[in-house]
Amino acid sequence: MIIIGYSGHGFVVCGIIKAAGKIITGYCDSEEKKYNPFSLVYFGKEDSAAAIAAFQQNDFFISIGDNNIREKVYNKLAQLNLLPAKVIHPSAIIDSSSFIQSNGVMIAAGAIINPLAKIGAGAICNTGSIIEHECVVGDFAHIGPGTILCGNVKVGNCSFVGAGAVVRQGITIGNNAIIGAGAVVVKDVADGTTVVGIPAAVK
């Protein structure tokens, strides 16, 4: 497995890959990192000839926390018929009736995906997050550590739900929205809106 993006979020991804019993062979980033805690080989930027050749021979994963950058990298590689694997920590609890896209999804340690939930391509369900029944997490969305999405919540594409936030059942969060850490969301959130606080209000 090769990872694209080798810093804080990438380190979490490395932990998931290792816990799943897979070997990480190298990384891609904008420059070679001086801090290389997992002693990985540097393949250059993700669009370099060496990286493309490596992706053609190995599974890879986009370990970039920023939703929009992750989407751009995903789409650029998809144009070359290169699609990332998904990474799932063995401690995650995933109901068999849920649907998780095959490409680029990260399910971290202790995450719970309950019945009939749907997780889109490139989405992140971070450490200890709870995705309740029939929730929909859009493509390239990021559900932060300890977040709780109650039943039938919809999170739009490229939206970010901060650590420890709680979203009431039936709420719809639009595309490219931001939910602040620890917020309690009791009303729908429009596209591109940032909300914070208890109850969450527009910032």
What tags apply to this protein structure?
203 residues, alpha/beta, eight-stranded mixed sheet, 3 helices
Widest sheet: strand ordering: 5-8-11-14-17-20-22-23
SS-derived structural category: alpha/beta
Number of strands: 23
Poorly predicted runs of 5 or more residues: none
Distance between the termini: 40 Å
Estimated helix fraction: 10-25%
Using the alpha-carbon principal axes, give the shape: globular
* Rg value: 17 Å
User: Mean pLDDT score, rounded?
Assistant: 97
Helical segment tally?
3
Can you walk through the features of this model?
With 203 residues, the protein is of the alpha/beta class. It has helices spanning 8-19, 49-57, 67-78; strands at residues 2-4, 26-28, 41-42, 60-62, 87-88, 93-94, 99-100, 106-107, 112-113, 118-119, 124-125, 130-131, 136-137, 142-143, 148-149, 154-155, 160-161, 166-167, 172-173, 178-179, 184-185, 194-196, 201-202. Helix content is 16%, strand content 25%. The strands form four sheets. An eight-stranded mixed beta sheet has the order 5-8-11-14-17-20-22-23, with helices on one face. Strands 6-9-12-15-18-21 form a six-stranded parallel beta sheet, with no helix packed on it. It has a five-stranded parallel beta sheet with strand order 7-10-13-16-19, with no helix packed on it. Strand 22 and strand 23 form a beta hairpin. The longest helix is centred in the first third of the chain and has 12 residues, at 8-19. The N and C termini lie far apart (40 Å). The mean pLDDT is 97.
